[in-house]
Amino acid sequence: MTAISDDRLVTIFGGSGFIGRHLVRALAKSGWRIRVAVRQPELAFHLQPLGRVGQIHAVQANLRFPYSVARAAEGADAVINLVGILYKSGKQTFDAVQAEGANAVARAAAANNSQLVQFSAIGADAGSKSDYARSKAEGEAFARAAVPDAIVVRPSILFGPEDSFFNRFAAMARVSPVLPLIGGGQTRFQPVFVGDVAAAVDAVLAGRARPGATYELGGPEVRTFEELMQLMLRVIDRRRLLMPVPFALARMQALFLEMLPNPLLTRDQVRLLERDNVVSVEAERESRTLRGLGIAPTAMETVLPSYLVRFRRTGQFWRRAETA
Ligand SMILES: NC(=O)c1ccc[n+]([C@@H]2O[C@H](COP(=O)([O-])OP(=O)(O)OC[C@H]3O[C@@H](n4cnc5c(N)ncnc54)[C@H](OP(=O)(O)O)[C@@H]3O)[C@@H](O)[C@H]2O)c1
Fold it and tell me: How far is ligand 1, taken at its centre, from the CA of residue 20, in Å?
């Protein structure tokens, strides 16, 4: 937690999401007044108890409507853009939300002379075949063009209560005897704790980041997808068959799965899995990392058991008693 911020105002676009909830708590502790800008403000009311009375309030904004974005950023000392999507759906395309939407936020920040933090992702790349990665790079470029001092934050996958990675696979393991290892499960990740990412943004707003820099946030360990599945299974005390699925076959499966309203897998996600998702050597060398912001990364083993416990096999106490 940083020093009290003299009641300065921050607007957080996408503040009702997974990272948003943790970030709102961290910034409220640091004394920020917080405007949570979301499509449906009534769904963000649960955030208000995270601060003192009147400290946190929700307003309506949709990144596809620049007027609503400009209104939500009015008078803000800092603006954070957390909005992102994992798959396209109707008008919620990657270009509309992650590229043009980021442009709307950046222009609104520039109009108010606000500090800007743009959330991107490791792997953002203007030349990527993945629409997710390409649109993230375009969002970064829009942020820089409008606010040259903007800080870009690129995390690897996140873990923490309500994450979509470990919770999703642990839920799958509860009902399925087999878990897929897409591309053989050898893609490398550097999972980062959501609390550390929130602390990093708190540090950025406190002026501890290099203006105009891109920070890559990863945890203390690099693990393959297969190793992450093995760790998750150990935590929930279940044995499951880990079945390698070649990328070509995964793409064919995704072709059908992506037609579902909340798809388990899309072809775009398979493209992302073809590349490692770890902090770059350059970012490490230049300390554009968690440690560079003064944060010691938290290990998965210390946090996963606290929220994956609900997926553990029932009856374990009896088995323990039997084997004792
Ligand atoms: N979680 C990870 O592992 C991870 C890893 C790397 C990068 N990131 C990036 O970090 C950021 C936050 O991630 P997260 O996990 O917190 O995502 P999340 O839980 O899915 O939250 C995304 C937020 O964006 C909002 N949103 C979506 N479309 C919108 C629109 N058109 N206008 C306004 N708001 C909209 C959502 O609100 P609604 O309720 O209105 O949909 C939600 O509040 C994203 O940019 C993501 O790409 C996340």
Answer: 8
- Do the strands 214-217 and 178-182 form a parallel or antiparallel pair, or are they unpaired? unpaired
- For the whole model, what pTM was predicted? 0.95
Of ligand 1's atoms, which has the minimum distance to the CA of residue 96? 31
Instruction: Identify the helix (H) or strand (E) that includes residue 202.
Output: helix 194-205
- Name, in order, each residue with C-beta under 8 angstroms of 55's C-beta and a sequence gap of 6 or more: 28, 32, 33, 34
pLDDT digit string (tens) for 8-20?
Answer: 999 999 999 999 9
Tell me what the pLDDT averaged over the chain comes to. Answer: 94
Cα distance between residue 217 and residue 200, in whole Å: 9
Q: How do strand 9-13 and strand 56-60 relate by DSSP bridges?
A: unpaired
Tokens of 155: 């995390």
Q: Which H or E run contains 18? A: helix 18-29
For 146-155, what is each residue's pLDDT tens digit? Answer: 999 999 999 9
Separation of alpha carbons 321 and 324, rounded Å: 5
Supply φ then ψ for residue 273, to 5 degrees.
-70, -10
Ligand 1 closest atom vs CA 39? 40
Q: What is the pLDDT of residues 92-142, one digit of tens each?
A: 999 999 999 999 999 999 999 999 999 999 999 999 999 999 999 999 999
